[in-house]
Amino acid sequence: MSSLLIFLGKLISLLFWLVVIANLVKPFAYPFDVLLNLAGVGLLIVHGLEVLLLNGRIRRSPTPWRSRLGVMLFGVFHWHRLPAKSNAAV
Question: Which domain of life is it from (predicted)?
Answer without folding.
Answer: Bacteria
